[in-house]
Every structure is written in C-alpha cells, then in structure tokens.
Design goal:
Length: about 325
C-alpha cells in the first residue's frame, strides 16, 4: 500500500500551480490530482470539524464520501495518491482514521486578506451564487449551521460582507488544519506559504520529496497561476470592505502564527487588483483573450461542430439544394 498525500488549504494559495508543476514532472508515472474531491462532495457546511468516531460513522453513510474513500483505496493500492486541492479538508480526519500511518499533510498558507479578496472575486458568499446552488457555493460553511471554532459570528453573519465571511472561513480552515496536526503529531507534516511556493524555485521539489516522490527535474510553470482578472472583478469587485479586516484581531493573530502576517503599508496598493476595473481595462483584457490559444481553439471547435452538423444534414437530404433552386425558378417564371 502506498502513501496518501493531502493538502490542507483554504484555496487560492497556489494549489493549481503546485498540481501542474508536479504533474509535469510525475504525471505519467504517478497520480497527482487537483481537487479530486469537490466541495459539493466534501460538504464543508456540514462536515467541517468532524473529528470523533460518531462523526466518522455519519460521514461513511454519505454516499459521496464513501465513494471517495473507495477511490483513494483503489488508487493508493497501485500508486502513491496525491491530491493538492483544498476541498478535501473536511474529510482529512476520516481519511487519516481509514488509512492509518499512510497520510502525509502539506499545510499551504496564504495571508487572509488576499485569500478573502480573491475568493470574493470568484463570487464566494454571493447570495445569488448560493441560491443558484452553483457547484460548491451551497456547501460553504457558516456559523449558523456549521460546527466551528468561532460560532460567535452567527449573530451578525447576515450583515457581514462576502469579504468578511471569507476572513471567517480562512480562519476556520486554518484552525482545523492546525487541529488535525495537533491530534495526529506522528504524521509527516510540512507547512509552506504560497509566497515561498511561487518565489523559491526549489519549493516544489521540497514538496515532492516530502510526499515521498522520487527525484525528478521540476520546472516552474508560471502560466498556471490562477491570477485575478478584470472579468472576475467586473462581476464581484472588492470595494472598501477590505478595510474591515481590523475588526478581526483573531484572524490577524492567526496569520502571524502561520507566518503570513498582514503588512498594512502595502495593502492599499495590493487591494487595487481586486477592485472593479474601468471600462477600458475590461475591454483591453477581453480583447487580449482573442489572441490566446484557448480562445482560438474554442472558435475552431465551434466552427468544426457547425461544419459537421451541415454535412450530416446534407447527407440526409442530398438534393435539398436543387429542390430549393428549382422552386425559386418556377416561382420566378410564374411571377414574370
């Protein structure tokens, strides 16, 4: 049986980048997944902070969870199993109990203000997204329904902005990650900041070594960073609400503890990239998209689909065109 490598994260910390870097080096020989389980399957609104045997029994009765456990068992019987996506966090205590002695934990951390702002631009905690049951959004945790470390925010939850709710979520996810480590001190555990992951060329290699993967040349993959763009900030901008972070001292203390302290002197400039774009910025960004391989591939696929539909129609009715031309000719003669 092989090791099971998981990532404890809030998301927007570099997990997409890390998955691409590792996949580029190991993809043909080892499984490297990014979000092998999704939020609508892991259900953080219901299962966050589930740690005891009664909790595990409830989790195992959930068909989504039991299927994921079966998948991990099957994959890890053949190869090391690695999932660096953030949604698995609520299931990590159960996975540790199910596969004792085989789990390795990477705790990937980014500062709370950047995470909350970035998640806000994705529509996290937007009531419209939640009402539409957009994948994962209906399963977002909240202190009204979710077992949590800071339930005192239930009283003002409805008046909090999406950004403030993002700060609360950042703390809950990282506090749970620390609790998992504290309850399982025997498990291999590595904490790394997203800044280190992005700026230190050797950082992905250290992660690979920690995961027990064999030495390989690991090259940076900068194009796979999930950057915030004007399309996102156009629909879900972060306005002045980011300044409310000062009302959450426990979040700031936790950020210090995790090695991602808030530097207030740089925040004003950093938050500008999450603000609503000007019309010219939006037009420029959308125009630039037309010069990407992805945009041209989409257009080509659409054109090929139309051509296939036309050829199928012609094959079914090969003389349609002649009939139409004959009909028009007769009509012209009658009219003259």
């Amino acid at each position: 049986m092989h090791q099971i490598c998981l990532c404890l994260s809030t998301g927007r910390c570099g997990t997409t980048y890390l998955a691409h870097v590792l996949s580029a080096a190991y993809g043909h020989d080892f499984d490297v997944f990014h979000e092998d389980v999704l939020e609508d399957q892991a259900k953080p609104r219901r299962y966050l902070w589930y740690f005891n045997e009664a909790d595990f029994a409830e989790l195992r009765r959930d068909s989504d969870v039991s299927r994921h456990l079966d998948r991990i068992a099957t994959r890890s019987s053949v190869l090391p199993y690695t999932d660096v996506g953030f949604p698995c966090l609520p299931l990590v205590p159960l996975i540790i109990a199910t596969f004792p002695g085989r789990v390795r934990l990477l705790h990937l951390v980014r500062d709370p203000i950047s995470v909350a702002a970035s998640m806000t631009t994705l529509g996290q905690y937007d009531p419209k997204m939640i009402l539409l049951s957009h994948m994962g959004y209906a399963e977002l945790p909240n202190p009204l329904e979710t077992r949590c470390a800071h339930p005192e925010y239930a009283g003002k939850w409805k008046s909090m902005t999406a950004f403030e709710k993002g700060l609360w979520r950042w703390a809950e996810y990282n506090l749970m990650a620390l609790a998992i480590h504290e309850r399982n001190p025997e498990l291999p555990y590595l904490r790394m900041t997203s800044d280190t992951l992005f700026t230190d060329a050797d950082a992905p290699g250290r992660v690979a070594k920690f995961f027990g993967l064999p030495p390989r040349e690991i090259l940076p993959q900068p194009k796979f960073r999930n950057a915030t763009n004007p399309n996102l900030t156009h629909y879900h901008p972060v306005g002045e609400e980011w300044r409310r972070y000062v009302h959450y001292p426990y979040v700031l203390e936790l950020a210090e503890q995790l090695g991602v302290p808030i530097r207030s002197e740089r925040l004003e400039a950093e938050m500008k990239k999450y603000a609503a774009p000007s019309g010219s910025q939006l037009r420029k960004y959308r125009w630039r998209l037309r010069f990407t391989k992805y945009w041209w591939r989409q257009k080509l696929d659409k054109l090929l689909s139309l051509l296939k539909i036309s050829s199928r129609q012609l094959a079914r009715h090969p003389d349609n065109g002649f009939e139409r031309r004959g009909f028009v000719g007769k009509a012209h003669q009658q009219g003259s």
